[in-house]
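Internal tracking record. Fields below are filled automatically when a chain is submitted to the structure queue. Please do not edit lines marked as system-generated. If the sequence contains nonstandard residues, flag them in the REMARKS field before resubmitting.
Queue: standard
Priority: normal
Entity type: single polypeptide chain
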Amino acid sequence: MRPNRTTAAVLLIGALAVVGCSKRDKPQSKAAPPELTQTKPVATQIEPVAAGDTDEEGFVAPVKPQSSTKVSFADGESAYKAKKYTDATTLFERYTEQKAENAWGYYMLGMSAWKAGDLSKAETGFKAALAIDPDHLKSLVNLSRVQIERKRFDAALDTLMQAGDIEPTSNEVARLIGRAFHAQGRIDDAVEAYRHAIELDEKDVWSMNNLALLFLEQKRAEEAMPLLLKATELRKDVAAFHNNLGMAFEHTRRFNDAAAAYNDALSADPGYEKAKQNLARVEAVKVNAESDDDRAGSK
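SYSTEM-GENERATED OUTPUT FOLLOWS
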């Protein structure tokens, strides 16, 4: 009997710590393009799942009509690097029509569509890459992210189990397992997964941040604080970490520290609206508290 996804994913978290030999022997795709700097897309409203749009096994890339205009991989990559994601999506669609055997073309189609906000097309692109190369780790990892955004948490856990089999020591896979569990409300499993990701990479600031946010949701601000202090120490340039640290200070009524953290967030990103709003609220609380102290002293 096949174990359920929760049990299997928990077992995978432990297996991720084992170095070495469970990686498959199948060679990776040849002629991989240079590494691209990947940024996390801003989470927005999750696209609803269309009726009948399910994760079917044996996925086959759709047959498309051929375009007469030649497009190179570099054309699509250039648009992607310029953050012209809609243009990049179109270019990689045309590229994959002409180079249907190249898993990296479909991978970049998936990445471009994801950044452009077309989650359905992104999922199709990643699955097409995996139809060519089932061990294409980047496609598995980013497919799981899209599945999490589309609230397909069981599908994401299945995808992550495949990724963990290929790369057993990946802190990224452990972190994404944590995200899937977190989204399902499986708090203890999510905590274990995030902690394991940090064990695998003590500088995994995103796992620190994600675990801290989980603790804040659970009204465990004291546990969140050291994680966010470490994250902001390692990455002073990420405004979200400073903002979340400010929230932890605010929850423990350390309003001066909270204001300082929100100011640090704005130093990292002057346009960060959440930090502006949080700082204004804390400053108002501080003024009210000082007024209360003045009134108490005059009695």
